[in-house]
Specification:
Layout: E1 9-12, H1 31-42, E2 51-54, H2 61-64, H3 70-80, H4 104-123, E3 129-132, H5 154-164, E4 169-173, H6 180-185, E5 192-199, E6 223-228, H7 234-252, E7 256-260, H8 278-295, E8 299-302, H9 309-323, H10 355-376
Parallel strand pairs: 1-2, 1-3, 3-8, 4-5, 4-7, 5-6, 7-8
Bound molecules: zinc ion.
Zinc ion (ZN) binds at residues 175-177, 262, 264, 304-305.
């Protein structure tokens, strides 16, 4: 492992963020972050000189209110305090995805505060990039309601703060689900460009994220969507990524890169249908590192979805190493016992798609790539 005098990368995380339970049968199990952090530790990253470990702070109510209605914030607080709120379903709470529970205000405010702290550590020059693994999960949260496990939209809150500092952000969401809450929160501004590459809403929650969703008003052309077919694998996913994202980043010339690194694209993920490996996912993060270098801009990453514990732990440990320019051996350290039976960071074994399905995927994805390029490329002279 390399040693450097100054840390390049902040890891913003606290144990508390892994200890709550949304409901006994909920697929989002925050303990995944504990298993991830233990793997980061066993791999020597937590104690590396390249990495600065920080606990998140709570986002203030004023910060949250830049992106959420006061009435909604009051409701989240009341539910957190144990009150029974009549009509909470209109704010997105109920059995299912967003169960009302004690502690939810604090946990959402910690995720948002983590993203805010990332902006602060970057703007004051402490580090050149930062990873907030408990963030990004909230990318479906809307200004007036909870959605898809998300309560306060940490990415929108942080990016609005950057806009206040007159900084333009290039946001890329590689979660398997469309980043609809982030898109909606920034839909009318050209001060941030949001790009989401996801499994098409034809097959998956939240049902949006079509190429024709391009923004409104000043924001027209600054929302970009790449909806992919189920079973898209590493190679086909990267074909779509390469056809759109690097050119747009260079054309937009942002002041900052902001990435959401959901790993529910993984081939073992129980909630969705793409077929990426951990190494396919991490290759995208390597491309982000190259873009941040090439454009000479700071970079914030947040976590996101990911419901296969072993994929979360391995992928985000690999991603942290990439951000900090550290090399990991492929073998999982023998001292790691937090999850059983992990042997390598990379997924092993070929994933075979039958030829007919493969042709369907290629056809669907090419139509999506062409539609997206037609919608937004001309505006940027591409
Ligand atoms: Zn997701």
């Amino acid at each position: 492992m390399n040693t450097v005098n100054n840390p390049t990368t902040a890891l913003i995380y606290s144990h508390e963020q892994s200890q709550h339970v949304l409901s006994p049968t909920h697929p989002m199990r925050p303990i995944r972050l504990h298993h991830m952090h233990e793997l980061m530790r066993a791999s020597g990253l937590v104690d590396s000189n390249a990495i600065l470990s920080k606990s998140p702070r709570l986002a203030t109510e004023t910060e949250i209110a830049t992106s959420h209605d006061t009435e909604y914030i009051v409701v989240v607080k009341a539910i957190d305090a144990g009150a029974i709120v009549i009509g909470m379903d209109q704010f997105g709470f109920g059995p299912g995805d967003n169960p009302p529970r004690a502690g939810m205000y604090r946990h959402a405010a910690l995720a948002a505060g983590g993203a805010m702290l990332a902006t602060e550590l970057i703007l004051d020059g402490t580090v050149k990039n930062a990873f907030v693994p408990a963030g990004g999960m909230h990318h479906h949260a809307m200004h007036n309601r909870a959605s898809g496990f998300g309560i306060f939209n940490d990415a929108v809150i942080a990016i609005k703060h950057l806009i206040e500092q007159d900084l333009r952000t290039f946001y890329v969401d590689i979660d398997v689900h469309h980043g609809d809450g982030v898109q909606a929160g920034l839909y009318d501004t050209d001060r941030a460009m949001t790009v989401s590459i996801h499994e098409s809403g034809q097959w998956l929650f939240p049902g949006t994220g079509n190429p024709n969703e391009i923004g409104i008003g000043d924001g027209q052309g600054y929302s970009v969507n790449i909806p992919l077919a189920p079973y898209t694998d590493d190679q086909l996913w990267h074909q779509a990524f390469d056809a759109i994202i690097p050119d747009l980043a260079r054309a937009y010339q942002p002041d900052l890169l902001f990435t959401q690194l959901g790993i529910d694209t993984h081939r073992n993920d129980p909630l969705a249908h793409l077929s990426l490996t951990t190494q396919g996912h991490n290759l995208a993060v390597q491309k982000f590192a190259q873009l941040a270098d090439e454009l000479d801009i700071p970079w914030i990453s947040v976590g996101g979805g990911g419901y296969d514990m072993t994929a979360v732990a391995r992928a985000w440990t690999m991603d942290l190493a990439t951000m900090a320019n550290q090399t990991l051996p492929d073998q999982i350290p023998s001292t790691y016992t937090s999850l059983p039976n992990l042997t390598t960071f990379h997924d092993q074994g070929d994933y075979r798609i039958d030829p007919d399905t493969l042709n369907d995927i290629i056809r669907h994805n090419q139509l999506a790539i062409d539609a997206t390029r037609t919608q937004v490329f001309p505006k940027f002279g591409l």
